[in-house]
Queue: 2 jobs
Job 1
Amino acid sequence: MNTMFAEQFNEPATNHSTAAPIEHRFNPYSDNGGTILAISGADYAVLAGDTRHISGYSINSRFQPRVHTLPGEKPLIVSANGFSADGETLVRRLAQRVEWYSYNHNKPLSAKSCARLIQTMLYGKRMFPYYVATILAGLDENGRGAVYSFDPVGSYEREQCRAGGAAASLIMPFLDNQVNLKNQVDPATGEPKIATDLSLEDTVKLVKDAFSSATERHIQVGDYLEIKIVTKDGVSVEYFPLKRD
Amino acid sequence: MDHMPENWGRPRSDVYGSYQHAIHSAGPQSHTQVPSITGTSVIAMKFNNGVILAADNLGSYGSLARFTDQERLIKVGKETVVGFSGDASDMQYLESMLERLIIEDNYEQDGHNFRAPHIYEYLSRVMYNRRSKVDPLWNAILVAGKKDDGSPFLGYVDLLGITYSSPCIATGYGAYLAIPLLRKLVSEDEDAKNVTEEQARAAIDESMKVLFYRDARSLDKYTVATVTLDGNVKFDKDVRCQNMNWRFAEGIRGYGTQKQ
């Protein structure tokens, strides 16, 4: 169409300028909600995540597990939470790299090396990142529980505990107080309390409480809680129902 | 004499060098960023003996109801049905990819055939790789069939490469209008064991009717496909919405002739 005529017969733009055209660009990212949480102990590590999968205000699935066990005889568990397509892809590629490592070197990949591998994989997409909060849990070379947490572009740290995903900001302060005993003082001495390793039993209780509370206050969290536990004997799984509203 | 007409009337290659074909593709590469002919919701649910899904036969061109005989449910392999919503040309491209996949798999007469989880895996990787090139295939897709262990399978994959499974799934407006009706029957995978094919069909028909009432890009003519666990795929085409009641429209401005 001749633009000159089109302009002539169209109503002049009133409120918004026509100088900059309204663009509908494809957005390659979205948010699929959910929350993950990991705590390490003396001889175990726990990685838990709810199983709700969302888009906007819709619940896509009530049971779409997001905590994955990597292949190998010394298992590692990992979850990449955020944009689920990126998360699934990262975990799938990581699983293949871990499997190939065991074939090439005839030994399992250690937790420490797996963490570094995840860093290079995340940073390798620095200019088009995987939009995920990643947590890796397993046992270190000495058989102690190990938890590594990552930001979307690969900066990482080994920690005692970490929450990631939608309700991370609700759970993390609770963990600081209950796991690392922050802002707690011994009433007898008045000295700050020193954090010690939690028993597995207490950890699982803490995880359930954290998720029940997050479910109350966050609309993207709920349905079921999947708790994966790594010990020297392997990975065990426990399910716990959460509110479905 | 040069017998190649495309060489006539241009500078001689032996004197000025050969033609630079790069001229043709000068400028940045552009991708299709908006869908044109589109299909609306696809809805699906599991029942005690398989999976049932439905999609209407409308191909919309923006708000214009352009094609009224568009088939959006296709059979892939022996026992899988794939339902497409979104862009029709991207749907046809994926159809041709799936057809080639099945044909090439059949060359090996090894007794293996693709089941729904394999088709689903394939589609999810295609969709994710295209979104990663920022050149997406503009569809939301449902894959229905059975798993390797013989239980029913239902999965979703869309233009972003997002994937999930659930006992009932719907794309587009179906996610808002049909899912609440379908979840009354199957909220959990276990619930599907207590739902018969007849009950499932009734819920699907009711959902298609609700969608026709409220989704302006829908049609009252649709296809229902049923995949049963014995490996049978049944297509029920040209189904019409039954027992519709438009009395509510009298009180709403914008529905039909206004009396006031």
Job 2
Amino acid sequence: MENFLPNKMRVCDTTGLPVCLEAERFIKLNAVAAVVSLLIGALAGITVALTRWEVVRFVSDLTYYRVLTFHGLNMLIFWIIFMEIAILYFAGTTLLKSRLASPALAWVGFILMAGGALAVNITILQGKGDVLMTSYPPLAADPVFYGGIVSFAVGTLIAVINFFLCIYIARRDRTYKGSVPLVVFGAIAAAIIAVLTLLHGAAIMVPTFLASLGIGWGSVSDIDPAVYRLVWWGLGHPSQQINVAAHVAVWYLLATLTTGARPLSQSVCRVAFVLYILFINLASAHHLLVDPGVSAEWKMWNTSYALYLAVLASMIHGFTVPASVEIAMRKKGFNEGLFGWLKAAPWKDPGFSAMFLSLFIFGFGGGVTGVTLGTHQINIIAHNTLRIPGHFHMTVAGGTSLAFMGLAYYVVPLIWRREYPVKALCRLQPYIFALGLSMMAIGMVAAGMHGAPRRTPLSGVEGAGPWLALLGIGGVVTFTGVLIFVLTTVVAVFFGKSNKGGPIEGWQDMERMKSNLALITSDWQPSKTGLKAKGTVALVLLFMAWFAVYYFANWKALADVWHVR
Amino acid sequence: MAEATTQDEGPPPGTIQKILDNPWLLLVLGIVIPTLSYTVWGLVEWFLLKPAELP
């Protein structure tokens, strides 16, 4: 039973799903704010990359810190979280055939978020917030900087509460039967992680804001850095774990939309999301692995034993997503050999290529480096080097941003009901972005292995020069990928060909789209097809071999610098 | 759309499924477990930290 108010819904001409018009407005508003943040964050990003490229040295040292602060906040916080709120409103309404719980709350949340982001950005550009994203005391920024972050966080919390209210009224009004869909379950996981994140944000940023006004602690420089770092990273790292849960949900959605895939096991996928909810936020402790104030027991429990349960969850998703695609492709007749399904996959569909490349970069790059760097002993040779940004560019930019870009190639035609222009360029875009990002991240990791530090424009580290050049060149290619995405999306939204009254044009030929739709609308079970995901198992073995080589090579590197006699 | 986005009625849910279907329980667990393991434990260690003696 649907619960839409009169004249407040429409039926999607492509999927047949009901779309709440109030929710649609806020999906659009948050998505636009996200893309604006992505564009300005990318402009700052290319500036940072060209400054780290030693022969270019694009901006001065002081400007570098300013631009890096701007880049970090816009890319890691504003772009990602605006987009996630758009996903929550989509998952909490359209996928549950339910209405937006409170348009008033959605307005309040959006205004606080947009106002906060604007205040932070203006303060940084005025030179009153050169404290980097982490704003560690005793570094102090203008009160407007902290106030803006608090405003953004409160707005996000209100939007998340609105999402939970959507879940509540959908359950109350029985708009769906049985369990919530898997994509919605993933969104719930992201929202729960967001609540924990925002509570930590409030616990540290509100007192810091008050201290910047001379209330409470006295001044920002009086705050104990050890306590600040402990609580701040309860905000800083989990904010990126919201991304992980959200982009995994997007993987499942895109796998379905682009190939007709169906999860191999609903229960296993859901348990993996629960492992995220319970354990992934402990990863915050990685940032304190060289801090003297907390014990080795605390560090090892939080970064190893307990966190490996969240790593297990990522490995489950990393298997089930491509395996579900493989089974769907084999069922459609692409059943030749080990990788015939992969060769025949819809690589010209940017929704699929973005999803698969995101999965590959996140797992083979971000996942392997993350687990390795999070090992207490190995961390000592990597902490505060460029290896760390190398890792998180592969998770956040290569994993989350690329998945969200792939989602946009479906959201714009379905929600805005306008088609993308220059489709050939759109088809290339995920490859350009993935290539540039991989070059950039490899450059960072390799330069970091030579000892190049992070968070500084300092150069001259022996052996790092060529890798910093790769970082710079990769940055240019990545920026090109972002620019193509932003420009084509903006043109699509404002000037794209309307598809109102009919299905979207789609990214695949008619025959492929029909076979996908046949799978999407039929009641088939992957486990009852008799088909095996042999190709994915081979990819998993390759992944495990690569992980073992990288992990133990790092132990060797540790042994080389730390002689035990 | 496929099971990634919809789910049909099936047999009555088991205990695990009931837990998975309760977002409020997951919300409480998702706040309590990381807060105890990371934040509270970390803050307790900080409170118990003895000031270093100057040489």
